[in-house]
């Protein structure tokens, strides 16, 4: 993937080197920092969105309060180091693509999220962000959180890697922001809270995650139309990554068995299928995972 022509975004908050402090925080429902960190590590090991686990624990604890944080303020603007600048360029291209595609295809104005770069641990409006969680989108503050060491983890743990695979990871999280702007994400979260079982709530999470995969593909389709900067090998990298982070493969690696009712992101086959759906046509309407079997 060639990124020389991509505009670096200034919507980057670089907290690397600022530490994980920035004031205290509390969690509605009585969850402590130890519990949050433990749930984050468990989520990463099983391929489960840590925010889903934390929300579930809040519900069990009887609390519905939102997490309150005081986060450190990092450097604002596009970083100059190689990893940070690459992230800023991908983010800038998501802004340029979605600013055109979302109004054209969904009649919605695109407002860009912030992307927070951090090292190890930081605070978000959704609680503690840890590198063990992997990248995630927090709808409460409309920010994407990313520790770039995750890219090295992709190579070591998942056997993936390559610039387009890394871009796919960022575009997937921005896809959740697009879902939020479309009003889909709050509806999913409300439906999960009203679900009669954990399996039902997990199925909603799967559809939500697969839609973000498809939207990442839509972004890549239009980026390539604009810059002609990805080829077959790039696509293979992204497909390999999507397959590697399927719930079935992650569960088999972590626990030796596969439990479909506990899936939260989708199987390897599903993730590849929806990513390629977006890549083939660049059509947001084709990403409606909530109206398909």
Entry keywords:
293 residues, 7 strands, globular
Extended strand count: 7
- Do you know the CATH topology? Collagenase (Catalytic Domain)
From the alpha-carbon coordinates, what is the Rg to the nearest angstrom? 18 Å
| Relative helix content | 40-55%
Shape: globular
Distance between the termini: 33 Å
Mean pLDDT: 78
Q: How many structural domains can be distinguished in the coordinates?
A: 1
| Order of neighbouring strands in the sheet with most strands | 2-1-3-7-6
Count of helices? 10
Assigned CATH class: Alpha Beta
Order of helices and strands: EHHEHEEEEEHHHHHHH
Name the CATH architecture. Answer: 3-Layer(aba) Sandwich
The main pleated sheet reads as: 5 strands, mixed
The gist of it:
The protein has ten helices and seven strands. With 293 residues, the protein is an alpha/beta fold.
